[in-house]
Amino acid sequence: MGNLRDELLKKGLVSEGRARELANRERARKKKLGKRAAADEKATLEQARARQEQARREADRRRELERLDQQAYAEVRARVAQLVGDHAICEGIRGPRKFHFVTRNQTILYLDLNDAAAGQLEDGRAAICEIPGTEPEVFRLVPARIAEKVREIDPTWVRFFEGARPESGNS
Q: What angle (nearest 5°) sits at the alpha carbon of residue 77, between those of residues 72 and 79?
């Protein structure tokens, strides 16, 4: 308490007489309480400090779990983006036929495809997948085997696929 008293005196916030008076009151209070009460007060402070430390550790643990979840989600998105980007069918698919599909936010979009590409989609030999992390959304035609892999990783990125459906039937 001497350090605080000295600081207050230096800054002129209390007079020396007032500082002595407060110090005497504190000593008198502690003497009146006795050793047992002082020990109880100290134990109470230690318990409060321990509770604060435990709460801080729990908050740190929650933040770390959230960070790990975000990291795992980012890795999944990157893996899907890599798969779809590497195996996208881009050459020779454009044509006069509009092939409609539903986006993740329930908007109906279409791709302009030729009859061969549309036939692959209808037969389940190809699928429409979204590339994660693109703004605005980018959709690509991919082979069925890639669509299966994407669906295993995270089915939300497969926007149209007539191949074997999972039990939920939501592709």
A: 95
